[in-house]
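User: Can you fold this complex?
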Amino acid sequence: MSRKIVVTSALPYSNGPIHIGHLVEYLQTDIWVRFQKICGNQCFYFCADDTHGTPIMISARDKNIEPEKLIDQVHKEHKADFDNFFIEFDNYYSTHSPENKQFSQEIYKRLKQAGSIVKKNIEQTYCENCNMFLPDRFVRGICPKCKADDQYGDSCDKCGGTYHPTDLIESHCSVCGNTPSLKKSDHLFFKLADYTPQLKELIASGYTQQSMSNKLKEWFDSGLKDWDISRDGPYFGFEIPGEENKFFYVWLDAPIGYMASVKNYCDNNGLDFEKLWNSDEYELYHFIGKDIMYFHALFFPAMLIGSGYKTADKLFVHGFLTVNGEKMSKSKGTFIKASTYLNHLNPEYLRYYYASKLTGGVEDLDLSVEDFINKTNSNLVGKFANLASRSGPMLKKKLDGKTGALNQAGKKLIEKLASAKEEIIKDYENLNYASAVRLIVSLADDANKYIEENEPWKTVKEDLEKTRTTLTAAINAVKILTIYLKPILPEYAGKVEEFLNVEPLTFDDVEKTLENHTINKFKRLINRVEREQVDAMIEESKQDQAQQPPTKEEKPQLPIEPIAQECTIDDFIKADLRIAKVIEVGPVEGADKLLALKLDIGGIEKNVFAGIAKAYKPEELIGKLVVCVANLKPRKMKFGISEGMILAAGPGGKDIFMLSVDQGATPGQRIK
RNA sequence: GCCAGGGUAGCUCAGUUGGUUAGAGCACAGGAUUCAUAAACCUGAGGUCGUGAGUUCAAAUCUCACCCCUGGUACCA
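Assistant: Here's the predicted assembly.
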């Protein structure tokens, strides 16, 4: 009996282009959906753009256009990228849609009715100049913990510390540079903790992979917190019913966007939304990256439970993409946009490469450029395409393109290929595409070996019918392998179908042999990758980096930290800066960023803890002259009392640079 | 430091509930071949499965300790 399935991928944010990291998810999902369809199951694939929030609003303002216009443009770009990668959505919609507004407001009302919404008065950073509340990442300043410059309001990139935007030193609005003030406002909170038992039950039922359940357990153990779901205007989003100038936080309506996309599709195609989304008749799966687990494993299901909708059957969580073993990097040219990739390379190379490495686990997936080229040329071209290319043309030219019947050996080969079907189906179903690909490649090896052994290029000179028999097996092998690869390589499969002169192939066709069948003229199926093409793509990505607009993850960058408020010489002189000699240095037990220093300031000794352990080794500091704030109020720390501070510049981590002192200065001398 | 997840051939990765001599692809060396997109085919070399101990007739697999990497979190006046 055929299954009925609804599938979603996470919604890409409307503030940036699709890149090859995004594509891991969309390709993983698309392959799965195509697989289901080829198996004869009914499977719908839904997605949409995630269009709301402050970054979109600001971005539109920068471009001097309405947000609606911006998200419209981006929607077209995203859709084009997906189309070009053969990612086949049944509906690619938008969260800025009437359906989404209706669902969001309705779900909110039901949650409110259920007593799951509370109002709290909270104080928040506000920019008087921009007339808006600033989300944490739009407040920037010096990290209060490690003093790294230009950090976000919620956490520091350098030391990893978390804090509140109000803790930042010299904080400023990242839009206009003004110092933000504090303003109180009512916010609405969703009482997530109320749903702890149901959520625990959901996770226990196998909602996610095991390693993700472990992660969730940590969150449960530390207790679920109320979730702030409202934002004050101006905010690009949906108004909250019954409130004045309040909008839903973008992450509230984003997952609801799945529902909106389904609803929109149902209305346009005469289908019943309640059946597709909310009944047992359809299985429901969400594909997501591990970074948005919190939303999909906690907030969203809790909201659904609270408002009377069913939750998904499973969450398929995948890891991130690394390139050559590292995070994607703009300066190294490995932050590759989908459109840049397409300027140089065939999308099916990437589909095949990802498939050959996806296992259904949450581990990160590495795109090694070397491996990518090798795998493409060796497998795709050398094994699959070559199998067709060494059999089709000969059959066409020498034997009128007509297959004959299989002999014993041919049958044996074809039966072997066909008998792998169940295992391949199982691998696809379990998202273990890597395993499926390994198996398919080994079958291609068998087929190539078969041709080798039967030497049709020799028999063609003396025994045409024997040659026909050999090539009949080869052609049938091509057909079966193509079916197996079709979820991964839809365009390639289409070309093979045309050349084999058959209707679109499905898994049902595996057992049907092509005997006494006339094929069409062979056309080249796929080209080899040249290293130059890949190099050119990386080069273009490097050049691209300057113009690339900030995406949701890529936060806006300021060139330098703004100059602080004016001060007088009297203010400056309050800080008593002295030349100090480092006389002892040691690590601090239990802290990997701290060094304990003993300083000689002209006969006076001071103990100072400095957060420079990642940048300096104790032995290189001994005897060094440094600049120290000598009259800093001693501070009690977890590890002891710090009686001063050493001056240094840099963002933090390994990039910390201490001020050095020119020859001649002696410990204790004052700096002025 | 704490919590996860990893560590298998030069590179990218498989290894099912513990079960013969630990596998594949690529890269490498040699051979044979030429139908095919310098493709395919045969042979070979390459591993103390992070380290050390333990359980067992048997450990890459289970237990413990330690080392290293990644992510999260903490200290960082």
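Residues 433-454 of chain A form the longest helix (22 residues). The radius of gyration of chain A is 31 Å.
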